Amino acid sequence: MGRLSGAWTRPGAAGAAGPRPRDFAIAGALAGASLVEGAARTDLPWPLATTLVTLAVLCAFPWRRVRPLTCVAVMTSLTVGFAIAQRLADADPNALFTMFALLAIPYALFRWGSGRARIAGGAVIAVGLAVTGPLSRDPIADAIAGIAFLGGACLIGALRRERAASRRQRLDAVRAREREALARDLHDTVAHHLSAIVIRAQVVGEDPHDTTRVTESVGVIEREAQAVLADMRSLVRALRSPADYAPSAGLDELARLAEPGPPPVRVRIDAPEDLPAVVASTLFRIAQEGVTNARRHARAATAIDVSVQADSAAAHILVRDDGEPARPAAGDGHGLRGMSERAALLGGDVAAGPDPDGGWSLRATLPLGGESRET
To answer: Can you give the residue ranges of every domain in the chain?
Structure first.
């Protein structure tokens, strides 16, 4: 009972959008195909009525994602009613081949519909099959075909929905890990600066009349406090998860990625040493991921180049190899996806793909002193 109740109350899938221009374009194309088929086929007992029923069902097609139960009810009621009318007139129930495209409606029911819509819609489809099956000349064969097509469309929709939900969960997990890593980096930075502030404050307290030491200590305290505020401004709007302690890496660790190979890794850094710690740490993580991917996937690469540049507005990093670009599509790996999430938290972006000059490149831009993006 608990599982049934959970299935009934399950909300609809996220991302279901209302009618889009392409939905009306597809419906229009199917309507044109229906008119042509209805006029060309000679085996239809009622060609005009069959075409009109198909066009009536197509009217619901653009709303299949946002009103899947209504669309299934419209499709089932019209097709069942038309099949009954044909049978009462002693005509073989028949339909246009265009109707196969309308399997997208039961697919949409199980891809986007809520739990109650899926259960009710499944019942409507089952009733429709139970009614129309005995009306045909070969009830068993037609029932099997109906179950195969309609059931297959529903199953594909359900599987597609579960796959999308699983992917969202993986993305959420990656995003959470990157937020935790950023929080750890912020912890390290704040702890370092506050330690310096505390030490200088103690120095002032030991001899408040030594104006030279007081002036020097106050200057250090001011610089350290400004550094803390700069790092916190770059992260505070992005962090939503608790953090644990772990050491953070920066430009020094990035420079040590240089290795003789094979293939050799060459690192060039043209950036000030006082970059915000979280930016430097993210640059290192992106470079590390790029070098790792190049070593793993690049074919016949003779060198891997890492270049970091920074100006007053942003820091830029490029990881490039000259090998054959035979590797997974950009964004498919969890590592690169994690770097994209981490950069997005700082208001930046990451892009990877074949380089116009040959090889493969990973590029990223991180703003300095800008606002973090809400995600």
So the answer is: 2-137, 251-367
